[in-house]
Design goal:
A hairpin with a 2-residue loop joins strand 5 and strand 6. The chain is built from seven helices and nine strands; from the N terminus they run E-H-E-E-E-H-E-E-H-E-H-E-H-H-E-H. Helix 1 crosses helix 7 and helix 5 (133-143) runs antiparallel to helix 6. The strands form two sheets. A five-stranded parallel beta sheet has the order 2-7-1-8-9, sandwiched between helices. Strands 4-3-6-5 form a four-stranded mixed beta sheet. It has 197 residues and is an alpha/beta fold. The longest helix has 21 residues, at 148-168.
Length: 197
């Protein structure tokens, strides 16, 4: 993993996006457990920590004032406000990982990915898609975590996100999560190929 100058080769950025319920988190967890040299990107947020979450592990938890100051100082590669809370990707975290020769795995929605590409055009995009919206609806209902109104909202959002990703997103790779075990194998194979290039 060295270059001709003798230092570590700069790592690669892998950005995963998906519609809610498409199985992205399960695939990312499997990937991180299967491929050495990958580091999961820790985002910053102004939302309150949930039980069991730790600062610097799950998120960098910031106050609104801290977050807005960092925005003004250009410290985020991308940021957005979602459901009343700010979320952003700290540039310093990315640079530390990449300069150490490790590869960074990011979980960013399709709209954030478009902004992130402006800061890091070399990022490789991987879009996780369900076989169909009908399949996604069945999966969301089977999870039993949401009521009918929330499922309808998630499906509407999924349609908008997938349309945006196909029309305006920069995704070099697509993984259809039809069979979970096959998708796990595919994502590991894909990432090993990317980081060996």
């Amino acid at each position: 993993m060295s270059n001709s100058a003798g230092g570590p080769r700069r790592g690669k950025i892998l950005v995963f996006s998906a519609a809610s319920g498409a199985g992205k988190n399960t695939l990312i967890d499997h990937l991180l457990a299967s491929v050495p040299g990958l580091v999961y990107s820790v985002s910053a947020t102004t939302r309150k920590p949930r039980p069991g979450e730790a600062d610097g592990v799950n998120y960098f938890f910031l106050t609104v004032d801290e977050f807005e100051r960092k925005v003004a100082e250009g410290e985020f590669a991308e940021w957005e406000k979602v459901h009343g809370n700010y979320y952003g990707t700290p540039r310093a975290f990315i640079e530390t990982v990449l300069s150490g020769g490790e590869h960074i795995v990011m979980d960013i929605d399709v709209f954030g990915k478009a902004k992130f590409d402006e800061a890091y055009p070399e990022a490789v995009g991987v879009l996780i898609v369900p076989p169909s919206l009908d399949h996604l609806e069945k999966r969301l209902k089977a999870r039993g975590a949401d009521d009918a109104g929330t499922i309808r909202l998630r499906l509407d959002n999924a349609r908008v996100e997938m349309d945006f990703a196909m029309a305006q997103g920069k995704y070099e790779h697509y993984i259809v999560n039809d069979d979970l075990e096959a998708a796990k194998d595919e994502v590991v194979r894909l990432v090993r190929t990317i980081i060996d290039e």
